[in-house]
Amino acid sequence: MIQTKRVYEKPSKEDGFRILVDRLWPRGLTKERAHVDLWMKDIAPSDELRKWFHHEEMNWSEFVKRYKSELSKKKELLGELKKLGNKHGRLTLLFGSKDEKQNQAVILADILQGFKGKK
Fold this sequence. Notes:
This protein has about 120 residues and is of the alpha/beta class. It is built from 5 helices and 4 strands, in the order ββαβαααβα. The protein starts with a strand and ends in a 5-residue tail after the last helix.
């Protein structure tokens, strides 16, 4: 099972293995308070894409397209996430964005649920 959650929300037992999928560490949050098991900043959108998305007029469908293109070159990292999901049973992909529906973790969770790479 793969779910997404804001890193600023209180951790729970139902989270399973918690993975931060942001390129930058969340502001004002200590590592102790974040309860992050793994920080995979390399799976996050590139700096260029992240800056484009936050500084341009938000175009969600274009962001999804560009991020999926970046992820198509990161099959090894996707496979690693899939293996972690198989090992731990439940993954929570953590993100810092205030928008809970339009962020990279949502896209990543959707891709992982259909990813047929390494088990």
